[in-house]
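Posting this for the archive.
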Amino acid sequence: MLLWGIALVLACAGPGSAEVLRGKAFVRERIALPAGLTFEAVIEDISRAGAPAGIIAAIRFKADGQPPFAFEIPFDPADLGPGGKYAIRATLHRNGRLHATTDRIYPLFEGGSQGPVKVMLRLVAQGRADPVPARPSPPLALPATFRGLRPCADCEGVRHRLDLWPDGVFHLHREWLGGAGDRLARGEVGRWHADAGRGAILLEGPSDTPRFWQVLGADRLRQMDLKGEPIDSALDYDLHSKGGLELTELGDATLGGMLTYQADAAVFVECLTGRPYPVAAERDYLTLERSYLEARASPGAALLVQVEGGLAMRPTMEGPDRPSLVVDRFIDALPDKTCAGLSGPDPIFNVYWRITELQGTPAPREPGIREAHLILHDAGEGRFSATVGCNRLLGHYTLSGDKLSFDPVASTMMACPAPLDAAEQALKAALSATRSHHAGSPGLELLDEKGHVLARLEAVHLR
């Protein structure tokens, strides 16, 4: 699967002059770009958690023709304070509407010098004429915490706590009450942006589905369906805010970030948001520290790590308690990658794969039900979830190169009406017979041992 990308190279303009962040914007999807695009790239200061990002320098121009688009961002090195955190953000707009955007933090100047950086842009759903403003309409009163109990088909309800900040960062904790699934709670961090065409915000994070929330007032959000359409139901899909932020402590989250360790203190800069957190010396911290010391390039160097854990208030040596990373389980250290390298050129993990075809038959699209989809969760344990719109299928997969296989699945036990009953059996059979996969244009194919196509899928939303 091919994606938007930007390759950036930092170069010095010469002695006594400003430095320049040079780059080229590439499109790796095999589609022609529409006319009338405007390209913008911004160097941001993201040092202060919870504060709006400060703009160091920016460039904006009409993106004529087709990519690559070359650009240069002059900046003053004196604007980069010692110990600061900086990132590049890039967008494409057309007729005032967001066309593509980076949906995660891509750090700059780590370790002082800056080599080539790859920044991925996510195509934004099109089809609505309204321009996208910087804030949703009606405006939200932020920062704020929103709470609610969302309906659930196979449990008593899903309790939500959603923290939103005005700089586009969110924290979300969900708890399934009385359910029979393999996970009863999940925490997430990520970024959100406004979609004025829907009068909504869209949460961008390591979630298993695209999630739109309709803005019904400064203190009220309502869940929308997977396509960003209002849900016509008498059930309560709303989240409410009492005003102000009551920081949610997160648990059961999979987090990736750059870890540094100096003077007996570890700091974790989370990739999706760019926020720095001290690391609490508890639970699996010693495994994290030992792995960092073994894999770091040099003393004090930043190292990309992945962990399971959460964010909780912990005391500091000086000053008040602050949010800190609590590591429940160390997953991996990736010395050859940065946050920008977490997603490879053809990612299949944490992607919402809509199933379009099963065993040569189009997947069912029944009104009022969830569409058929598959997600391969990349959490260090090879877990997947899938459905055709009836039962939720759960299990584990094994992936090595293009080889892919699925263990026997567990599922909820609802009786499925036609045609979902036949489609669900076809999906179970396809997963059982899968031995390899092909990811590329136009999407993902599951193949049997002879290379025959068992299922075809297309990416709806990338994480």
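Residues 1-17, 126-135 have pLDDT under 50 and may be disordered. The longest helix spans residues 420-433.
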